[in-house]
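Structure tokens please, single chain.
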Amino acid sequence: MSRSAILHVTSLFGGGVDRHVRDIVRTVARPQLIWHAGDGVDVIEDAGRFFPLASGAVGDAVAGWLRSRRVGLVHLHQLTRAPRERAEWACRALGVPRISTLHDILFLRADAFSAGENLAPDPAWLTETSRVLRESQAVLAPSRFLADLAARHVPGLAVDVVPNGTAEPLSNQIKKSNLIRKGFARERPGRVVALLGALGPHKGSDLVEEIAARLEGSDIALVVIGYLDRQLYPGWRIPGRLFVHGAFAEGEAPALLRAYGASLVLMPNTVPESFSYALSDAWTAGVPVLAAPRGALAERIGAHGGGWLLPHEFDADFVAREIRALAGGEREAERARVQLALATPDSGRIPSLDDMTRSLDAFYARFGIDPQAPESAGAQAIESLVARSLDGALFRTELVRLCDELEQTLADLKSTQKRASDFETEARGWIAKLEADVGAVQEELRKSTEAREALAKEADLLRLNKEALDRLPSPLRRLLLKLAFDARR
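Here you go.
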């Protein structure tokens, strides 16, 4: 008998949650579907096909199709409103249990990412999320920090810790050196401090430009391997100080860190991380980190080393001083020792994808049910309600391609502007030379004209003198001519 399928329910957004779900789908040996839910938007992904549901399509027909796919367990990955509503509907419609994974602090309040240090829950929001968690057969979290936070705010809730696993990169992948942007390679700084991922305010984006400005006078530049909320496209945001690489393909972060020659990864988060794939990627590349003392960052660095924690109250000045000290400054030897220690493999420091897969499959085997007499409904049943669409992974690939094309376009534009500037400079030089040549010709022409006028006057005078001479008597004329001839001797 075939194993029952898992229906993953998540949001429409990418990031770490999307990476986690796709790792599960790729490595857990059982049928799996993904329901991407948002306000007014639902897309079901099944074996590489993507079905955006029409408005009002969620009902008996969709339930029948999910039964035909032998769904025996719902795995909820996001506690925002749309995913949890879809997960609850699927459990009721299919009569199957649910497990839930906490991936962030959004179970406390809908605006948790913009709340800063304020982790006080929204009572009405927490009431809803707590009910969903308590009704789940199991609740998982990737870190002890997040598990304890949930248990503290949802009394009596048992949370199992299953760390997010990372696949070991291929040796030829992590050694790639052709991944850096040409615009960076042309003006490569002496040292690089990297930031990883899509940086918004909750990841410390508001501090990045201030930190870069305070590195003026050093040979250090910040490189965002990813993008900023204020710049998505590749290129220098602050020439020589802050470079944005742009979006990159899944799994390329360690190779990019190596290619850019990062000596340190900065993580100035203002909101606690629940696990941090970025930290795993930095350690996979063998690069130490300088991180905010919050959440799973503090938990993992405190347990395994591999970097330094900033004080609870830090600003751009303090971070810049720490960077100067660690990246080639008085603490360079300390940084090098930490980097050397990261070269020794440690499955506790970087949990393996295989370990995560085995743990999750055990939960699926324990709580999943075997649907009896599934309804027969092929792809045509769902296709009558939906149309094919693209998934987040394909949009990410498209974003990478667009970033590459934009970089090339900007490079071409810069080259064209340079050629136009060079042509203008050369043209101005030729115009100046031509104007000087014309001026010289005009001056010669003026002098020539003056000379001709003088000669004409002299010719007129000579003509008058000859006429006067011709009127004199012949003996006198011959005498005067003899005297003039003798005077020339």
